DNA sequence: GCAAGGTC
C-alpha cells in the first residue's frame, strides 16, 4: 500500500485536519522531537487504497543568517552585508530537529500533501518541507505527480474535505517573495544595527542600551511613539470660551444645555454672545426628538483586539497577554489565540462553547437565558482564512486559573457571550432650545434593553436622568447663563492600545509579531511603559527618530515597509523577477545606508546634547596595562572599561558588579585585575580586562575570566585554583573562589553551580597534589583553634572535597558530591577531566603570527 | 550581539 505524507504548519492543526479527514478514526504517536505528533489512518487517494500520515512542522523550518565569519562585528564592514556577505539557511530551531524528524517520517512515502497555512509564509514553508522530504521519498514513476498543495480557508469539515478533493500545487512565486523579504530584512536590519551600535557605543558612555537596533518594523513602531511625543512638546495651549446655560426643568431640577457653537477662540466674540443671551429670561423649545438607537454587540474576538483590550483594560502588556493566552490554549480553555479572523464560519458550533458556560458562577443566568431564548448570530466580520475567532472552549473558575490567566479568560468569555447576545437598545432624546439667536441642546439616553452590555457591564450606556416631556414652543426659565474660560490640553503619550491600532493600520508587523516589536523597543530602552500603559520615548529613542528624520525620513516612516511589500507582492504574483526585485531593493538601501553613514554627524549632533562622551563617563577603577593610567568604569549597559589615554574600550561581563581586585595585576599584560560578582549569594571571579577581550592562549575564547585561564603559574588561574570536574555540567571545572572566605565557595567556571564549604575556615588553598582516587586537586584548609570543626581539635587538614571522609561534613557538596562522576559508578568515564584537565599541558603556541604586542607577549610566555 | 516571520 502506498503512503501519503501530509504536513501542516503546527501540531494543533495537524490534529484537527487529521481528525476531520479520518472521520475520527486515526492512531497518533509523538514524533522524535517531542513537539510534533503523527496521525495515521487509511483511506483512498487518486483512486487507490493508501495509508495517510499526517504531521506538522512548528512554523518555519529554516531561518536565514550570514555565513559564520560575517557575524564577527569587528571584522566585517556593515556595508558588506548588502551584497558581498553570503547568506545560508539554518534550521530555525535546532532543538526541534525538524529536518531529521521530517526525513524519518517522510522516508519511503509516495505522495506529499502540503497543508501549511494559506498565506505567503505558509507557501514558503511548503518549500522548506519539500527540500527536507523529497530526497527521502520514493521516486515517482513515469512522470506521476507526487507533490500536492491543499488550499483551505477555515478548519471546518466542508472546507478541509473540499481542499482534499481539489488539491493544487505549491506556489513558487509566493514562496520566493518570502525569501526576498527574509533577505532584505536580514541585510538591511543587520547593516544599520551594527553600524549604529558600533558608532554610538564607541562614542558615548551613558546610552544605557547594549544594542542600538534598526528594523523595518521596530523603527516605524518607535517612530509612532516619538511622533506623539513631538506633538506633546510642540503643543501650545489655546484659550477658548464656552457658553453654558441652565434652565429649570421641574421644581428641584435644572438642565444643563450645551451650546451648538461648542466653543469660540475669541474672548470678545464669546462675550458678545453672552451679552445677547443674558438679556433673555427664557429658553424656547425649538424641536424635540426621540430616536431608538442601538449599540452594536462586539465583533468576534481576534488577536489584535484581544491585545488592545488586555493592554487598555487589564493592564497587561501584549507580550505577557500573548503568553498567557497561549497557556490557556494549550490547557484547552480557549481556542487558538493567534488569528486575524473576526467571523465565525456558518457551520461553527456556537452553542457548544456557550453550553460549557451554562453553570458558571458568574454568568450562568445570562447564558441560560440565551440558550433558552435562542442566540443571536454573531455580526459579520472579516474572514482572513486562518483560524476561527478566539473562543472559550471549556468553563473555568477564578480559583482554577488565578491571576492574569483568569482575568484574560474572563474577558475572552464575556466577549464571546456578548458576540452571540443582542445589541444594546436605548432611546436617545434630544431637545433643541433657542435663547435669543443662539441654539442650545440637551440630550439624554435611556436604556430599552441592555443586550450584550449585561455581560460586558463596562460597555453599558450610563444611566441618565429622563428629559422632561415638552414640545415645540414650550419655554423654560433660564436659571443661569455664563461664559466659561477653558484651555485646550495637549494629547497624552501613546497608549499601547493606540500603538497596536496604528501598527495594524499601517501593516507594521502581524498579529503574532506586533507584541514582539513593542517588546523590542522597550527592551532596547527606546521607550518606557508608564502608568496606563502609555509609551514614553526615552532620550535615546527620541534622538534616533529625530536623527532619521534629519538624514532620511524614509528610514522611520511607516511607508518604508509598505513600499517594499508592494515590490514583494509583484514577485508573489509572478509579475516581477525575484532576483531583480531583490537586487534593486538592496541597491536602494545600500545607497541609503552609505548616505546615512556619510550623514551620521547630523544624528551625532543630537546625541551630543543628550549623552556624554565615553571619556567623560564613568569613574576611575583600574589601571591600564599599556599606559598605567586609570581606566574608567562605565556602568551603563553595556558595562565596560574605557582608557581615555589609549582610547580603548574593554567590555566586561554584564549583569553583575565589578570591583577592583586588590590592585593585583595580570602577569601577561600588566592590567589591573577586576573582580566580577553576581551578588552575595552567587559566584565571583577575577578577570583581566585585556585578556577578557583578547584571549591570551589558543585554547581560550573571548569573555573568559581568570577562572578559565590556562596560564600555568599565575596564582589566579584555573590551573592554580581549579579543584575538579563540575558536578553538573559537561565541560566546567569547579574553581576555588579565593575571595569568598570566611564563607568559602567553589564555583563552576561554566555553569551556575556554586558549592559552599569550610565555613569560618581561616584559610583555604588548593594544594599541589591530587586525589589518588578521583584526580581532583586536594584542598589545604586552616581553621582557628577555637573554631576548628576538625577531629581532635586539629587546625589543618589536607584532603579531597569529594572523597575525604573528614571533609564530608564540611562541604555543602553533599548532593553535589554524590553526583560526582567518581560516585556515580560506571567504568571510569571521562578520564582526564577536572583538575587533570586544568593542568593539562597547553597546546603548542600558535604558528600564526600574533596580532599585536600583547598577544606576542602572551605567546612568548607560553 | 543584529531583522522579521513562523511557532513551542
TrEMBL record:
Residues 821-854 are annotated as: Disordered. Residues 3-153 form the Toprim domain. One of its GO terms (biological process) is DNA repair. SMART domains: TOP1Ac, TOP1Bc, TOPRIM. It catalyses: ATP-independent breakage of single-stranded DNA, followed by passage and rejoining. Belongs to the type IA topoisomerase family. PANTHER family: DNA TOPOISOMERASE 3-BETA-1, PROKARYOTIC DNA TOPOISOMERASE. This is DNA topoisomerase. It comes from Loxodonta africana. The lineage of its organism: Eukaryota, Metazoa, Chordata, Craniata, Vertebrata.
Amino acid at each position: 500500500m502506498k503512503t501519503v505524507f501530509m504536513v501542516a504548519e503546527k501540531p494543533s492543526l495537524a490534529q484537527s485536519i487529521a481528525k476531520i479527514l479520518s472521520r475520527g478514526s486515526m492512531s497518533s504517536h509523538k514524533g522524535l522531537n517531542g513537539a510534533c505528533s503523527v496521525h495515521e489512518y487509511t483511506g483512498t487517494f487518486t483512486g487507490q487504497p493508501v495509508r495517510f500520515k499526517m504531521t506538522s512542522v512548528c512554523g518555519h523550518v529554516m531561518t536565514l543568517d550570514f555565513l559564520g565569519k560575517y557575524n564577527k562585528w569587528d571584522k566585517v564592514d556593515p556595508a558588506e552585508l548588502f551584497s558581498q556577505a553570503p547568506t545560508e539557511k539554518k534550521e530555525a530551531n535546532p532543538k526541534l530537529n525538524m529536518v531529521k524528524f521530517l526525513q524519518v517520517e517522510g522516508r519511503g512515502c509516495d505522495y506529499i500533501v502540503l497543508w501549511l497555512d494559506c498565506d505567503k509564509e505558509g507557501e514558503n514553508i511548503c518549500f522548506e518541507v519539500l527540500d527536507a522530504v523529497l530526497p527521502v521519498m520514493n521516486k515517482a514513476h513515469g512522470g506521476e505527480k507526487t507533490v500536492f498543495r491543499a488550499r483551505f480557508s477555515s478548519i471546518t469539515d466542508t472546507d478541509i474535505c473540499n481542499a482534499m478533493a481539489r488539491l493544487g500545487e505549491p506556489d513558487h512565486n509566493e514562496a520566493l517573495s518570502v525569501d526576498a523579504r527574509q533577505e532584505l530584512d536580514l541585510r538591511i536590519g543587520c547593516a544599520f544595527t551594527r553600524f549604529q551600535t558600533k558608532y554610538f557605543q564607541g562614542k558615548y558612555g551613558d546610552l544605557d542600551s547594549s544594542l542600538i537596533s534598526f528594523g523595518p518594523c521596530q523603527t516605524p513602531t518607535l517612530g509612532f511613539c516619538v511622533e506623539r511625543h513631538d506633538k506633546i512638546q510642540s503643543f501650545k495651549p489655546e484659550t477658548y470660551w464656552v457658553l453654558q446655560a441652565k434652565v429649570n426643568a421641574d421644581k428641584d431640577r435644572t438642565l444643563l444645555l450645551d451650546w451648538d457653537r461648542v466653543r469660540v477662540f475669541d474672548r470678545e466674540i464669546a462675550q458678545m454672545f453672552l451679552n445677547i443671551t443674558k438679556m433673555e429670561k427664557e429658553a424656547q423649545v425649538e424641536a424635540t426628538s426621540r430616536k431608538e438607537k442601538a449599540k452594536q454587540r462586539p465583533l468576534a474576538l481576534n488577536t489584535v483586539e484581544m491585545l488592545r483590550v488586555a493592554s487598555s483594560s487589564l493592564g497587561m502588556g501584549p507580550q505577557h497577554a500573548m503568553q498567557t493566552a497561549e497557556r490557556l490554549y494549550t490547557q484547552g480553555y480557549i481556542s487558538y489565540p493567534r488569528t486575524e479572523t473576526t467571523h465565525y464560519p456558518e457551520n461553527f458550533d456556537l452553542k457548544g462553547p456557550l453550553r460549557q458556560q451554562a453553570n458558571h458562577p458568574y454568568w450562568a443566568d445570562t447564558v441560560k437565558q440565551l440558550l433558552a431564548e435562542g442566540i443571536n448570530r454573531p455580526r459579520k466580520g472579516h474572514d482572513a482564512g486562518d483560524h476561527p475567532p478566539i473562543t472559550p472552549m471549556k468553563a473555568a473558575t477564578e480559583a482554577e486559573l488565578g491571576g492574569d490567566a483568569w482575568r484574560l479568560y474572563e474577558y475572552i468569555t464575556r466577549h464571546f457571550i456578548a458576540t452571540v447576545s443582542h445589541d444594546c437598545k436605548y432611546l436617545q432624546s434630544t431637545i433643541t432650545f433657542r435663547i435669543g439667536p443662539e441654539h442650545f441642546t440637551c440630550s439624554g439616553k435611556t436604556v430599552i434593553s441592555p443586550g450584550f452590555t449585561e455581560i460586558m457591564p463596562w460597555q453599558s450606556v450610563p444611566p441618565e436622568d429622563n428629559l422632561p416631556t415638552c414640545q415645540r414652543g414650550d419655554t423654560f426659565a433660564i436659571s443661569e447663563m455664563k461664559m466659561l474660560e477653558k484651555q485646550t490640553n495637549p494629547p497624552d503619550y501613546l497608549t499601547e492600545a493606540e500603538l497596536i491600532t496604528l501598527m495594524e493600520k499601517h501593516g507594521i508587523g502581524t498579529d503574532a509579531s506586533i507584541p514582539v516589536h513593542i517588546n523590542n523597543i522597550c527592551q532596547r530602552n527606546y521607550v518606557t511603559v508608564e502608568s496606563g500603559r502609555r509609551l514614553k520615548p526615552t532620550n535615546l529613542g527620541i534622538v534616533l527618530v529625530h536623527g532619521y528624520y534629519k538624514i532620511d525620513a524614509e528610514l522611520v516612516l511607516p511607508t518604508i515597509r509598505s513600499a517594499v511589500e508592494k515590490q514583494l507582492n509583484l514577485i508573489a504574483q509572478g509579475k516581477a523577477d525575484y532576483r531583480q526585485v531583490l537586487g534593486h531593493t538592496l541597491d536602494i538601501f545600500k545607497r541609503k545606508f552609505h548616505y546615512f553613514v556619510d550623514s551620521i554627524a547630523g544624528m551625532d549632533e543630537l546625541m551630543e546634547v543628550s549623552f556624554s562622551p565615553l571619556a567623560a563617563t564613568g569613574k576611575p577603577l583600574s589601571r591600564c596595562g599599556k599606559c598605567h593610567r586609570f581606566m574608567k568604569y562605565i556602568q551603563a549597559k553595556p558595562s565596560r572599561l574605557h582608557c581615555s589615554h589609549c582610547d580603548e574600550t574593554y567590555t566586561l561581563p554584564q549583569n553583575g558588579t565589578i570591583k577592583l581586585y586588590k590592585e593585583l595585576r595580570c602577569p601577561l599584560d600588566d592590567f589591573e585585575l577586576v573582580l566580577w560578582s553576581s551578588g552575595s549569594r552567587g559566584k565571583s571571579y577575577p578577570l583581566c580586562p585585556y585578556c577578557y577581550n583578547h584571549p591570551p592562549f589558543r585554547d581560550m575564547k573571548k569573555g573568559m575570566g581568570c577562572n578559565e585561564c590556562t596560564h600555568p603559574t599565575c596564582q589566579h588561574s584555573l590551573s592554580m585554583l581549579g579543584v575538579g570536574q563540575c558536578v553538573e555540567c559537561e565541560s566546567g571545572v569547579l574553581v576555588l573562589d579565593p575571595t569568598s572566605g570566611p564563607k568559602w565557595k567553589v564555583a563552576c567556571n561554566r555553569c551556575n553551580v556554586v558549592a559552599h564549604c569550610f565555613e569560618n575556615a581561616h584559610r583555604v588553598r588548593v594544594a599541589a597534589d591530587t586525589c589518588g582516587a578521583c584526580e581532583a586537586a586536594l584542598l589545604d584548609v586552616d581553621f582557628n583553634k577555637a573554631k576548628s570543626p576538625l577531629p581532635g581539635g586539629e587546625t589543618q587538614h589536607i584532603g579531597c572535597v569529594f572523597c575525604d571522609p573528614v571533609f564530608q561534613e564540611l562541604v555543602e557538596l553533599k548532593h553535589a558530591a554524590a553526583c560526582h562522576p567518581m560516585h556515580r559508578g560506571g567504568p571510569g568515564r571521562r578520564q582526564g577531566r577536572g583538575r587533570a584537565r586544568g593542568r593539562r599541558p597547553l597546546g603548542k603556541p600558535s604558528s600564526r603570527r600574533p596580532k599585536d604586542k600583547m598577544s606576542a607577549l602572551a605567546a612568548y610566555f607560553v
